[in-house]
Design a protein that fits this description.
6 helices; globular; 22% strand; 157 residues
Length: 157
């Protein structure tokens, strides 16, 4: 018998089975964007959560945290907290990742913005075409839709 089956049927039919009610009967609560089991808690998903936790932190050129970041400083900090080492700049980070196609991208992969062969920006893919990143001077760490097709994807090894 599942936890949801143990919730009084009137609550389920009425659509009022709260997370509290489900948890109270031994069920689990699924939160969108959060790993449901230990196997899903990879370094990439941990880094994604770290980046998201820095929402609103101010951009500062050359900063690597914990309270101010530039783009590659945010990715470096996030993966370091997840147990992975990355080099300092976006271009160096691109050269240290396993390059993947857009169709293979997953939440936690790095998104590299480029002009020709020059990588100039990096963020962490959050899914649904969005990234967590530290955009520019005067801005803050935030979730934003990818605004160009001039991107490459990399998976941290």
């Amino acid at each position: 018998m599942t936890a949801l089956n143990r919730v009084p049927s009137l609550m389920v039919r009425a659509g009022t089975a709260s997370a509290f009610a489900i948890a109270a009967v031994g069920g689990s609560v699924v939160v969108p964007g959060v790993a449901a089991d230990a196997a899903a808690a990879t370094p990439a998903t941990k880094a994604l959560k770290v980046a998201a936790s820095k929402k609103g932190s101010p951009y500062k050129y050359g900063a690597t945290g914990p309270s101010r970041f530039d783009c590659s400083g945010l990715t470096l900090y996030s993966f370091k907290k997840a147990g992975k080492k990355l080099p300092r700049t976006a271009a160096q980070q691109y050269n240290k990742t396993r390059h993947i196609g857009a169709g293979s991208r997953k939440a936690g992969d790095l998104v590299f913005f480029h002009s020709g062969s020059n990588v100039y920006h990096v963020g962490i893919y959050a899914g649904k075409g969005k990234i967590w990143h530290a955009p520019k001077t005067g801005d803050v760490v935030r979730l934003q839709k990818i605004w160009t097709k001039s991107v490459w994807y990399g998976r941290v090894k």
